[in-house]
Amino acid sequence: MKKLFIPKYIYKYTRFNEYWEDILQNRRFYMPSPDELNDPFEGQLLPVGSGTAGNSINTAAGKFNRDMERFLKNFRILSFSANIRNKAMWAHYSDQYCGFALQFNFLLRLS
């Protein structure tokens, strides 16, 4: 059986924008809706398979995407990373290495 990886620390990459003071002063994060994400593949729910109950009917009727969009409007997303040394994350989410990353002790919160 594969062992579950639970990181001791998790990181929030961010940039100096209109939200960084709110993060530090008020201890809260802005959580975007799926349609606000910058990657077109983030926040999408994909059909499990053609044998899923009701899936093929909704897909054939063109209803699947409309239902999912309506469903996802009720959700917000907060992303963290277990890796502080990821160059792509620093470049993309920390304004080309000009931002910062906040470290959280994840195991402390679980206990």
Distance between the amino and carboxyl termini: 24 Å
Portion of residues in beta strands equals 5-15%
Low-confidence stretches: none
Strand order of the largest sheet: 1-2
- Elements, N to C (H/E): EHHHHEH
Number of DSSP E strands: 2
Percent of residues in helices comes to 25-40%
Walk me through this protein's architecture.
This protein has 111 residues and is of the alpha+beta class. The protein has one domain. Strands 1-2 form a two-stranded antiparallel sheet. It is globular. The model has no long low-confidence stretch (mean pLDDT 78).
Features:
32% helix, two-stranded antiparallel sheet, single chain, 111 residues, alpha+beta
Entry summary:
With 111 residues, the chain is an alpha+beta fold.
Give the topology, please.
Blueprint: E1 9-14, H1 20-26, H2 55-60, H3 63-72, H4 87-93, E2 100-105, H5 106-110
Antiparallel strand pairs: 1-2
